[in-house]
Specification:
This protein has nine helices and six strands, in the order H-E-E-H-H-E-H-E-H-H-E-H-E-H-H. It is an alpha/beta fold and 254 residues long. It has a six-stranded mixed β-sheet, sandwiched between helices. The longest helix has 26 residues. The N and C termini lie far apart (66 Å).
């Protein structure tokens, strides 16, 4: 067998393994015990008192509260945190299963006319399990950030990126390790955009990943989503990021 044939076989083998791993990641992320898929009420809520502030949450099952109680989940808790010093008009357009492209093309159009003052985007996990190309992730996030800025040049933006998918009990090894590596790669893409636009990333993977790897009781019955205790681990990371966004992000208004 000549060298070219050997190389061809190696390339085909690698592509086949990638295809198989992609299929398994998608399959394993949807099998096993299920948690109820929440349907989020996207109607406006008004909370708190003080300077008016419009707060929009976009994202996937994490910001929809799947696996836990929505009223104590990350979206509602973030709104209540902002409401300690503002009259907050709060909208949540999150949908379980959403990828970045869904946030860009299906969720943001519902929020655009609101010209939000603060936007929290909790998405990335489904791009990891679905193996969305990093180039596509970068393009879609870049478009989303630009659209938010175009709607309100003074908007404060917080992105979570992907949580640590290498902590997910439902994913068997070596797929769990593959998902963890993929999370890191996706978050590096997000970090480049955060630096480019001088916005904030809430480092969920880095700050909460060790706890989730150590304590399986932070997961819901589906062994995929956080439960109430798990989401409580997220919340301090998000509130710190919201504080940073409000105090550090510069206005882009000329």
């Amino acid at each position: 067998m000549n060298i070219y044939a050997k190389v061809s076989i190696a390339v085909v083998s690698i592509l086949l393994l990638l295809a198989i791993s992609t299929g398994l990641l998608i399959y394993l992320s949807t099998r096993g015990p299920r948690t109820e898929v929440p349907v989020v009420n996207s109607s406006a809520q008004t909370l708190g008192s003080g300077q008016p502030l419009t707060f929009v949450v976009l994202g996937d099952s994490t910001s929809a509260g799947q696996g836990g109680n929505y009223t104590t989940g990350i979206a509602q808790s973030s709104a209540e945190y902002l409401a300690k010093s503002n009259t907050v008009t709060f909208y949540n357009f999150s949908v379980s299963g959403a990828r970045i492209n869904d946030v860009l093309n299906k969720q943001w159009p519902k929020a655009e006319s609101l010209k939000p003052n603060v936007v929290l985007v909790s998405a990335g996990a489904n791009d990891v399990t679905g193996r969305t190309s990093l180039k596509k992730v970068s393009i879609d996030f870049d478009k989303l950030i630009n659209k938010i800025i175009e709607a309100n040049c003074d908007s404060k933006i917080v992105l979570t990126g992907s949580p640590d998918m290498g902590s997910i009990p439902r994913l068997v090894q070596p797929l769990r390790a593959l998902a963890g590596t993929r999370s890191e790669s996706l978050n590096k893409v997000v970090d480049k955009l955060v630096k480019k636009y001088e916005i904030i990333r809430a480092p969920i993977a880095e700050k909460t990943g060790p706890a989730f790897r150590k304590d399986r009781f932070l997961f819901a019955i589906d062994k995929f989503h956080p439960n109430d205790a798990g989401y409580q681990v997220w919340i301090p990371v998000l509130t710190a990021a919201l504080d940073a966004a409000k105090s550090m992000q510069k206005s882009r208004c000329s």
